[in-house]
């Protein structure tokens, strides 16, 4: 073990000197596909809110048929600030609103349809929920995103080329009228039947070709190049393959998308886990609702997830290198229900208490090896609270270990690891050992790390912990370790 029992301040001082002298070795070369700067910023957001709100809220349905009268949409106490305040306090960094769900009702006064908020009693037809939410989000420091359902059960021309034009026109309205949009959510759902302008029939589309996504994405990109496109297949973020809030313990951000397209069945497992050595960087996003349904139903007021359950979903999403997209559906008043607000407050309390104090940051750290014996790549980088530095090994060294020695025996609940993914995802397997009765005892074996990996340690008592990376696609780069 290369011992680094020096206090952190001295180590940082030495690191500066060594940088000023000469750099003995070069940093590792990038490995495989890499995340874009927008994707990197997306990981750091960690928690975003999904908001399902439309005519379904008033009809008590999950999927409107498309024949609902706009008259039904009438939230009496709508308050976007109540939503955003709740989200900001709970630690959410972004919000994605259903501007249009499968029933086709537009939450903004679209010029291309009469099936919209402009023909509702809400604010005498002068309301614009997309505008109110995007403005309030900005005021509360949250990024704004939109969901615009491709499947539209209201439109008479759904299935014709003219509908695709209609869909693009609506995207143009959203992407030019409401400020920066960080994420665009393309939902692959399509149940076939609908109102379709009075036809009341089942329509099938050629799911691979009908929407001509490449043209649509290019168009949106030309208006807002920084937007991240989510769909079953990416191109920027992929579906995680389930709606239960469970990311893969093994989560490769890499995947080969030509095996994927929206609606293809049997690919859920692939979406959840990804592929080591896949051709593209498309992380899985974990979407789940705080209630059984995506829309508000009074009957589900008692079925809101508990703070503990939300914390478990945090561990199975953010703790597995994804982000959590948690749906909170406003009620018929146009407010987050008290039970949901209470659950979110409790969730925040748990997060704050669990991650309040990182014991690793006041510990000593050593590693079996570090790159070129160059201090710039030493294990001190694991605990220096700087995301831009990392511990790494020589090229070709794909198994190595590091140890964290605590000041005294402590009870450990969680281990947090972060890979320096700016240069690619590499770690495929690692083992965790703790010091018990004067020897190392294996606690468990895990697989990938990625942006962030949080492993429950179940309150084990120990004075030392060792992470042994046993398999990596190239020399591993670890930027952070935390112990809670
Ligand atoms: C699904 C939709 O059918 C649900 O209504 C909901 O919007 C969910 C997030 O995606 O595909």
Commentary on this structure:
This protein has helices at 8-21, 37-45, 56-59, 80-90, 129-139, 161-177, 213-223, 268-273, 307-315, 338-354, and strands at 47-51, 94-100, 143-148, 183-185, 193-194, 201-202, 228-231, 237-239, 254-255, 280-281, 284-289, 323-327, 364-367, 391-392, 400-419, 427-436, 439-446, 453-472, 477-483. It is globular. The two termini are 24 Å apart. The strands form 4 sheets. The protein has an 8-stranded parallel β-barrel with strand order 1-2-3-4-7-8-11-12. Strands 13, 14, 15, 16, 17, 18 and 19 form a 7-stranded antiparallel sheet that branches. Helix 4 runs parallel beside helix 10, helix 6 (161-177) runs parallel beside helix 7 and helix 9 (307-315) crosses helix 10 (338-354). 23% of the residues lie in helices and 24% in strands. The chain has 2 domains: 8-30 and 358-483, Jelly Rolls; 37-354, TIM Barrel (Alpha-Beta Barrel), CATH 3.20.20. Bound molecules: beta-L-fucopyranose.
Summary tags:
TIM Barrel, disordered N terminus, globular, Jelly Rolls, 10 helices, 8-stranded parallel beta barrel, 19 strands, 484 residues, 23% helix, alpha/beta, binds beta-L-fucopyranose, single chain
Query: First CA to last CA: what distance?
Result: 24 Å
Which word captures the global form? Answer: globular
- Note the quaternary state here: single chain
The biggest sheet amounts to: 8 strands, parallel, barrel
The radius of gyration is 25 Å
Report the total helices.
Answer: 10
What level of helicity do the residues show?
A: 10-25%
CATH structural fold name of the largest domain = TIM Barrel
Detail the poorly predicted runs.
Answer: 2-21
Order of strands across the main sheet: 1-2-3-4-7-8-11-12
């Amino acid at each position: 073990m290369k011992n680094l029992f020096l206090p952190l301040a001295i180590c940082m001082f030495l690191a500066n000197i060594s940088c000023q002298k000469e750099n003995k070795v070069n940093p590792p070369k990038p490995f495989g596909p890499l995340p874009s700067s927008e994707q990197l910023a997306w990981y750091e957001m960690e928690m975003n809110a999904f908001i399902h709100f439309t005519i379904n809220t008033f009809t008590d349905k999950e999927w409107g048929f498309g024949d609902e009268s706009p008259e039904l949409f009438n939230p009496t106490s709508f308050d976007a600030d109540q939503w955003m305040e709740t989200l900001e306090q709970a630690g959410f960094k972004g919000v994605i609103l259903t501007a249009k769900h499968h029933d086709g009702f537009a939450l903004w006064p679209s010029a291309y349809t009469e099936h919209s908020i402009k023909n509702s009693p809400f604010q005498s037809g002068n309301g614009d929920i997309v505008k109110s939410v995007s403005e309030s989000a900005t005021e509360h420091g949250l990024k704004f995103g939109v969901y615009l359902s491709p499947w539209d059960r209201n439109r008479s021309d759904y299935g014709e080329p003219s509908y695709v034009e209609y869909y693009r026109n609506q995207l143009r309205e959203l992407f030019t009228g409401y400020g920066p949009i960080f994420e665009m959510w393309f939902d692959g759902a399509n149940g076939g039947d609908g109102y379709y302008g009075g036809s009341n029939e089942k329509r099938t589309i050629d799911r691979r070709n009908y929407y001509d996504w490449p043209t649509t994405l290019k168009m949106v990109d030309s208006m807002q190049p920084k937007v991240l496109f989510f769909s079953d297949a990416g191109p920027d973020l992929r579906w995680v393959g389930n709606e239960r809030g469970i990311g893969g313990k093994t989560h490769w951000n890499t995947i080969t998308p030509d095996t994927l397209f929206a609606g293809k069945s049997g690919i859920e497992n692939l979406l959840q886990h990804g592929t080591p050595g896949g051709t593209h960087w498309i992380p899985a996003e974990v979407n789940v609702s705080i209630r059984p349904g995506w829309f508000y139903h009074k009957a589900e007021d008692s079925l809101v997830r508990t703070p503990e359950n939300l914390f478990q979903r945090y561990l199975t999403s953010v703790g597995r290198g994804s982000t959590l997209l948690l749906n909170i559906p406003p009620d018929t008043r146009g407010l987050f229900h008290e039970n949901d607000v209470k659950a979110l407050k409790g969730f925040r309390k748990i997060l704050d208490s669990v991650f309040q104090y990182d014991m690793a940051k006041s510990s000593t750290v050593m590693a079996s090896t570090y790159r070129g014996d160059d201090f710039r790549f030493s294990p001190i980088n694991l605990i220096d609270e700087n995301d831009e530095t990392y511990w790494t090994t020589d090229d070709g060294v794909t198994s190595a270990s590091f140890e964290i020695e605590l000041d005294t025996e402590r009870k450990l609940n969680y281990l947090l690891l972060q890979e320096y993914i700016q240069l690619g995802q590499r770690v495929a397997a690692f083992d965790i050992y703790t010091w018990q009765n004067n020897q190392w005892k294996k606690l468990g074996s895990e697989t990938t790390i990625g942006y962030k990996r949080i492993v429950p340690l179940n309150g084990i008592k120990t004075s030392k912990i060792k992470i042994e990376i046993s398999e990596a696609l190239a020399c591993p780069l670890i930027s952070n370790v935390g112990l809670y």
